[in-house]
Design a protein that fits this description.
The chain is of the alpha/beta class. Helices cover 43% and strands 20% of the residues.
Length: 223
Amino acid sequence: MDTLDMWSRVDQYITEKLIPQDTVLEQVLSANRQAGLPPYDVSAAQGKLLQLVVRMQNAKRILEIGTLGGYSTIWMARVLPADGRLVTLELDPRHAEVAQANVSLAGVEGIVEIRVGDALEQLAKLKEEGAAPFDLIFIDADKPNNPEYLKWALRFSRPGTIIIGDNVIRGGEIMNEASTDPRVHGVREFYSLLEQEARISATAIQTVGSKGYDGFVLGVVNG
């Protein structure tokens, strides 16, 4: 058995033991595949982790940078209160269309707002609109722009806001200073900003599973 197969089987075991079967989420993943979306959704275990963080934070306002088909969006939105709000940003209109259908299927369309267009432009618009701080911000979009997303996340934060960044290990490529991959450069700069930024206390966790070898950053904005 190769390593990835073992990781995938363990992921399946965790899912079977700890995550009840969910027909809606299965339909969401199926809709994403049928629409030809890239297979970048978080795993079920990772989706449940995001959901638990939302609950632990008692979050009412969430900002998600990178929607794809809305799988992670739904995991988080489901545990928001009735007056909660999740704003999610998606560049690709086709992805946003699929996500909107999935959000409606999950019955959280009254909580989720999908904004379509360049994320940096959408973030600037939110600032112009006077958007209130968010309780949790999930960064899971194009990695070259991760440093800019972090800067915006801090602008939309308050003391205690949780900021999570996904795909920050890149199969270990973050150790390769000579990498020519702009995604790796973006993530490395993301780390450098976190290192220098006094407003946030953060750590990173390496993960393995059905999605391969990667990881996430978890930070809390200081008071």
